[in-house]
Design brief:
The chain is mainly α and about 290 residues long. It has seven helices and six strands. Helices cover about 50% and strands about 10% of the residues. Helix 5 runs antiparallel to helix 7.
Length: about 290
């Protein structure tokens, strides 16, 4: 999230800066600073800003404050500002500084040695705007992440349920081969196992089609604050924490880790079927069962 400037502004009832706002800062010693002054970070150091300059900085910012800004309030951590923003849908443009902000002659950079007062005002205005847009960008990115997931998840829940059903049937068919009753119908039991393997493989491939779409969105929002499970839950799919979704790079790569984690569901099923087939082949060889 955004790093806030060490500034505490007195606000009106709406939460937006008053024209007559004074600012409070906290010195490194922990002693209260002059309440008529504020502080802003500049080039890795703290600069003291008198109250009238704080008011001037906010006055110059007024034309550029975005419509989604609801409130500005002191940070609960004792320094800086916290911005309350209206929720984003994720379908807006990513929040950025308007071109006119850079072109505004009242906000363009002025060197400290040329005009210390203007330097402080413009540094504070730029920092407030930058922190506001950084927070807005973070919140917008999370909203866009969720919106994109809602668009691609589609029938993934149904496909996952189908896979779980077929995987359970496969487990039962394989477990039956270890019972005493199977000796009476060994070829038929093997045939049912093969059918279960095929259905499970198909169900896994169907789910992987959706999982790839989801994985691509995860990769697109790699630097969003939301994690994968949290984003899917916010999109309306809390059960997705149980879904097997590999990274976007793994789908179709053909090069997989020896471990199940991080591989597509189809590859996980392929390995399971290979283990089952190898076991059955070994049983047939050791028992002399010709049908194996």
């Amino acid at each position: 999230m955004s790093q806030l400037i060490p500034l505490r502004a007195l606000l009106d009832d709406s939460g937006l800066p008053r024209k007559e706002s004074a600012a409070l800062s906290q010195q490194s010693t922990g002693e209260p600073a002059d309440p008529r002054e504020g502080a802003a970070m500049s080039r890795g150091r703290t600069i003291t800003v008198p109250a009238d300059e704080v008011s001037e900085a906010f006055a110059r910012l007024q034309p550029y404050l975005p419509p989604y800004l609801r409130k500005i309030e002191p940070s609960p951590y004792g320094s800086g500002l916290r911005f309350e923003l209206a929720p984003f849908t994720g379908r807006e443009e990513c929040p950025t500084k308007p071109r006119s902000f850079y072109d505004d002659p009242a906000l363009r950079f002025v060197a400290e040695e040329d005009d210390p007062r203007e330097f402080r005002i413009r540094e504070m205005a730029d920092r407030v705007m930058s922190d506001l847009l950084e927070q807005a960008g973070d919140e917008w990115r999370d909203a866009a992440y969720v919106a994109d997931l809602k668009q691609v998840v589609a029938d993934a829940p149904e496909r996952w349920k189908t896979y779980e059903r077929e995987a359970k049937a496969l487990e039962s068919a394989y477990a039956y081969l270890r019972t005493a009753d199977v000796a009476r119908e060994w070829p038929a039991a093997l045939s049912r196992l093969v059918d279960a393997q095929d259905r499970t493989r198909d169900a896994a491939a169907a789910f992987d089609e959706r999982a790839l779409d989801i994985a691509v969105v995860h990769r697109k929002y790699l630097y969003a604050d939301l994690g994968h499970d949290a984003a899917l839950a916010r999109a309306g799919y809390p059960e997705a924490k149980d879904w097997h979704i590999a990274s976007a790079e793994d789908y179709g790569s053909g090069y997989f880790s020896q471990y199940d984690t991080g591989v597509p569901l189809t590859e996980r099923v392929r390995r399971l079927i290979e283990q089952q087939d190898n076991h059955i082949t070994k049983v047939g060889r050791l028992s002399g069962t010709a049908t194996v």
